[in-house]
């Protein structure tokens, strides 16, 4: 796969090589900087406040496929303390044809776009973040795989993220997120126990 720069993109090993995906340019592996839960791979853009998270969560069997992405989006809003009225909104939900994803083991794939008003580090200041959520359902492994692209749209001047505003160098795009979602590949099913 070729990136915009014309350099061949290489799949990056995830979860000790059990999965892999093409991770966009300027990605810093946050596990090099701090402790990350074992069910997550977290990447931050080197020059913006954007992040990408690959997360393995419990398969929600009682939630229909078409409702599962919204379920996980609302769960993330709860974790972000963004559940009050007006703090989160789903703007689109699309089923992805299995032919468009490399993770052939998934029973269904979904892409959700929404916004959340969140604060960082329990600050009072709230930033408006567009959240692109990819969901790959793996009921046979009792796992839902989430790929989340956090793309800040409006940063409060009182936020600790405000310092990054003047350094917008080649921000990640929705295409970078989609490439990561579409190239996620399973190499070792033992990852799921």
TrEMBL record:
Keywords for the protein's UniProt record, in alphabetical order: Guanine-nucleotide releasing factor, Protein transport, Transport
Coiled-coil stretches noted in the UniProt entry, renumbered to this chain: none
Keyword Protein transport attached: yes
GO cellular component terms given for this protein: nucleus
GO BP: heart contraction; protein import into nucleus; regulation of membrane depolarization
SUPFAM superfamilies: Mog1p/PsbP-like
GO molecular function, one term: transmembrane transporter binding
The family this protein is said to belong to: Belongs to the MOG1 family.
Protein name in UniProt: Ran guanine nucleotide release factor
Organism: Channa argus
